[in-house]
């Protein structure tokens, strides 16, 4: 069957190749699920992998099948699988467990081992192919009624985790009632986080570079009831003056410099969550004395959040469902750039490299 792969560590090597169709029996104890792939989304991580800044092949292979955002339909299940059945729509988690205590309790998203295994990213083949098999433990059912937005399940899981982690960590304050949240960046993570924070009834500013006029990202932000703010002509301090200092910031610009600039504006007792995976080597000068003093005196918190486990997928999918009901015809607007079949994989990279493009995904098959 067809697959799209790269040679990790060598830039610009994306190619189509033939791989074997996986067998249900390759997963032991009757726990296998065979899924026909319908759509695979790509994001900045795929771009970094293609540019050899990130990612690794499975041991023994010199290629990595890409694709970590998958939506598919179950074709066959092992005899011990009961939470999905043939014909169900599903997404699939990305990380696979290592050996730390977190991995053994289903929290590979917070593994304490240096090495992590991620399908389509690091040491495990991905989903940009026609079929995949995995353990039922990683297969998440998706409501068929919402199948048009199924390919957003994985990014939604990443947002659900980032927000959940902030709320969990803020238990340190005994009482935390955030009022204002900022989302830095209006890519898929920024926009889905915006929606989830609005579903939690916060005042949300979604802050990005491009001006609002004629900008789909601004349109979607406002349809969720958040404010879209362009930093073209205003600094973060200006935004803080106008909308108030944020109690919570979700940083999702892909630019590590912004992560540190955010440290200047966070409110007292606030939480700053970093989610951008930046494979580069940018260096940034910061006002360390000022920030250090303010952060100590203000009891502020910064945390990193990566990936999403089974439970975060369920939360992300629940948010997509509630968001679809609360903001009709809005979430699907994220799905801007479909690619028609794996044969057209060469269209992927130019679109991924264009920062004005919101979401690129490949339609692989129909149900
Ligand atoms: C993926 C996550 C993954 C992270 C780090 C992101 O693009 O969506 O699932 O954990 O990259 O590799
Ligand atoms: Zn991703």
Unreliable stretches (pLDDT < 50, length at least 5) are none
N-to-C SSE string, H for helix and E for strand: EEEHEEEEHEEEEHEHEHEHEHEHEHEHE
Mean pLDDT: 97
Number of helices: 10
- Largest sheet features: 7 strands, mixed
| Cα-based radius of gyration, to the nearest Å | 20 Å
What helical percentage do the residues reach? 25-40%
Report the end-to-end length measured between terminal Cα atoms: 17 Å
Structural class by helix and strand composition: alpha/beta
Write down the overall geometry.
Answer: globular
* Ligand inventory: beta-D-glucopyranose, zinc ion
Say how many strands there are: 19
Percent of residues in β-strands: 15-25%
Please characterize this protein's 3D structure:
- By secondary structure, the protein is an alpha/beta fold.
- The protein has ten helices and 19 strands.
- The protein has helices at residues 44-50, 101-104, 153-169, 188-199, 216-223, 236-243, 256-261, 288-297, 310-326, 348-353, and strands at 2-6, 15-18, 32-42, 64-65, 69-77, 89-92, 95-96, 117-119, 123-124, 131-135, 139-142, 180-184, 203-208, 227-230, 248-251, 271-274, 301-304, 337-340, 360-363.
- Strands 3, 5, 6, 10, 11, 18 and 19 form a seven-stranded mixed beta sheet that branches. The protein has a six-stranded parallel beta sheet with strand order 14-13-12-15-16-17, with helices on one face. The chain has a three-stranded antiparallel beta sheet with strand order 2-1-4, with no helix packed on it.
- Strand 12, helix 4 (188-199) and strand 13 form a beta-alpha-beta unit.
- Helix 3 crosses helix 4, helix 3 (153-169) packs across helix 9 (310-326) and helix 4 packs across helix 9.
- The longest helix is centred in the middle third of the chain and has 17 residues, at 153-169.
- 45% of the residues are buried.
- The mean pLDDT is 97.
- Bound molecules: beta-D-glucopyranose and zinc ion.
- Zinc ion binds at residues 43, 45, 68.
């Amino acid at each position: 069957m067809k697959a799209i792969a790269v040679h990790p560590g060598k830039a610009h090597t994306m190619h189509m190749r033939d791989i074997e169709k996986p067998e249900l029996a390759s997963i032991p104890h009757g726990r296998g699920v065979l899924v026909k792939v319908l759509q695979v989304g790509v994001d900045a991580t795929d771009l970094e992998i293609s540019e050899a800044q990130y990612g690794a092949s499975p041991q023994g292979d010199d290629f990595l099948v890409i694709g970590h955002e998958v939506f598919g339909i179950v074709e066959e299940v092992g005899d011990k699988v009961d939470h999905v059945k043939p014909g169900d729509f599903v997404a699939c988690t990305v990380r696979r467990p290592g050996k730390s205590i977190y991995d053994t309790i289903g929290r590979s998203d917070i593994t304490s081992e240096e090495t992590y295994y991620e399908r389509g990213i690091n040491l495990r083949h991905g989903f940009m192919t026609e079929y995949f098999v995995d353990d039922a433990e990683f297969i998440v059912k998706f409501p068929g009624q919402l199948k048009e937005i199924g390919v957003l399940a994985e990014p939604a899981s990443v947002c659900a985790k980032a927000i959940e982690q902030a709320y969990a960590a803020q238990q340190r304050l005994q009482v935390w009632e955030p009022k204002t949240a900022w989302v830095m960046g209006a890519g898929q993570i920024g926009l889905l986080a915006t929606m989830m924070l609005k579903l939690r009834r916060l005042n949300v500013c979604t802050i990005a570079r491009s001006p609002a006029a004629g900008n789909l990202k601004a349109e979607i932000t406002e349809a969720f009831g958040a404010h879209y703010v362009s930093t073209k002509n205003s600094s973060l301090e200006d935004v803080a003056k106008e909308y108030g200092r944020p109690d919570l910031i979700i940083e999702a610009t892909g630019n590590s410099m912004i992560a540190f600039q955010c440290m200047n504006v966070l409110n007292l007792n606030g939480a700053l969550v970093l989610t951008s995976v930046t494979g580069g080597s940018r260096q940034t000068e910061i006002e360390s004395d000022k920030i250090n003093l303010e952060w100590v005196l203000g009891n502020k918190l910064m945390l990193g959040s990566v990936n999403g486990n089974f439970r975060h997928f369920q939360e992300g999918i629940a948010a997509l469902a509630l968001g679809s009901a609360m903001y009709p015809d809005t979430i699907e607007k994220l799905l801007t750039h479909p690619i028609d079949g794996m044969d057209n994989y060469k269209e992927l990279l130019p679109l991924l490299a264009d920062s004005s493009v919101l979401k690129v995904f490949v339609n692989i098959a129909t149900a």
